[in-house]
From TrEMBL:
<dbReference type="InterPro" id="IPR000866">
    <property type="entry name" value="AhpC/TSA"/>
</dbReference>
<protein>
    <submittedName>
        <fullName>Redoxin domain-containing protein</fullName>
    </submittedName>
</protein>
<feature type="domain" description="Alkyl hydroperoxide reductase subunit C/ Thiol specific antioxidant">
    <location>
        <begin position="4"/>
        <end position="36"/>
    </location>
</feature>
<dbReference type="Pfam" id="PF00578">
    <property type="entry name" value="AhpC-TSA"/>
</dbReference>
<dbReference type="InterPro" id="IPR036249">
    <property type="entry name" value="Thioredoxin-like_sf"/>
</dbReference>
Length: 44
């Protein structure tokens, strides 16, 4: 588990267009990650 203030681990996931997105591709910029489960959004 990542603690508050720690760097997020690198990961690759499909973006909204199905293309791979890798977090490390944004370095050295800052970004805000909003992670949610699909079930929380009402899609399932």
């Amino acid at each position: 588990m990542v603690e508050v203030g720690q760097a997020a681990p690198d990961f690759t996931l499909p973006d909204t267009h199905g293309k791979p997105f890798t977090l490390s591709a944004l370095e050295p910029r800052w970004c805000l990650l909003y992670l949610t489960r699909i079930v929380d959004r009402g899609f399932i």
